[in-house]
Amino acid sequence: MKSKVYFIDFHTTFQRNIFDKIDDALDRAEFNTVYREYDKVAVKMHFGAENNFGVINPRYVRYFVNRLLALDTKPFLVDTNTLYAGHRVNSIDHLNLAVRHGYAPSVVNAPVIIADGLKGQSEEVVPIDTKETKKAFIGSDIHHADAILALTHLTGHMETGFGAAIKNLGMGCASRRGKLAMHSVSKPTVNRERCIGCARCAQWCQVNAIEIKDGKAHIDEKTCTGCSMCLSVCPFTAIKIHWDSSHDYINAKITEYAYAVAKHKKDKIFFVNFLNNITKLCDCVSIHGEQLVPDIGILFSKDIVAVDRASIDLLNEAAGRNILKKLFPDIEWEDTFSYAEKLGMGSIDYELVKIK
Q1: DSSP H/E element including 213
Q2: Among 6, 106, 139, 350, which is disulfide-ready with 116 (CB 3.0 to 4.6 Å)?
Q3: How far is residue 99's CA from residue 106's CA, in Å, rounded to a whole number?
Q4: SS3 letters across 288-305
Q5: pTM over 0.85
Q6: Element (H, E) at 91
Q7: 189-240 adopts what CATH topology?
Q8: Among 65, 61, 68, which residue's Cα sits nearest to residue 37?
Q9: Nearest of 56, 6, 4, 2 to residue 26 by alpha carbon
Q10: Which pLDDT band, with edges at 50, 70 and 90, does 245 fall under?
Q11: Which CATH number is associated with domain 3-184+244-354?
């Protein structure tokens, strides 16, 4: 039986606004059956890097929170801290950033919690028996939540090809130790022939792992976290990652971590993917790049694999080509879906139900 994925576009009329369409989609997708009275519901978000404006509009978030409140649940917005320095590396700065980006409790009608604590060390160890992971390190407050509502903004991604619900749960719910495990092999290297020593990579490195020696960039592998920010900012394509080994690994690890998060929630997760402001790079970067396609719409499903597969299919349809393959030719992002399906997380065989 095909998994149902419900779709609305952003077109509205005086008689029917976007929230009317969201309500219909949630009702058709049986949103209310996922949550019970008094459930503590983790509304999994990405609050965006400083100066990134591609994240989900807080008015949408408030609407979903109000739907949860109407069910007498106890929703809270949540994310985890990052590996690299910046405004999301500890809970104090991270919470302040969330407020600056419009996710204040007074706006979204729910408290905001950073699930892995002050410095990213509050975690639960979840044993799983998967190819690359035997123990997953998950942010404590996400692990202990009764249910999850994953609100995800679709983007491209320099390491995984795309970022959607699987990445939101996998990378986004991991503690810092978990994130380090995922990034452990994706270390960049410098092509000395192409490098001109402009130092842009060093300026952007969040952990000061890059310095200029003899007019060329040098990356300290011991300090490097593998975040690949340097790769995205180098204007001379002088920094590369050996994707043949690392992209398969990190995609597998992210999928396994998403599996670890969902393992104890069973039927207590609902997924909403926003297909607007879709850019080549993810919301972890402090820029807002050019949109790849015009805004598409919003997807709703109980199946994480189906909702992500449908998201990519709609993106490629809007682009008129396999745009991720063009942007990231060395990344076999399709493997994410086959592996997630193999783990029993969902199905790539879906029915797209369009709601007018």
Answers
A1: strand 210-213
A2: 139
A3: 10
A4: CCCECCCCCEEEEECCHH
A5: yes
A6: helix 91-100
A7: Alpha-Beta Plaits (3.30.70)
A8: 68
A9: 6
A10: low
A11: 3.40.50.11440
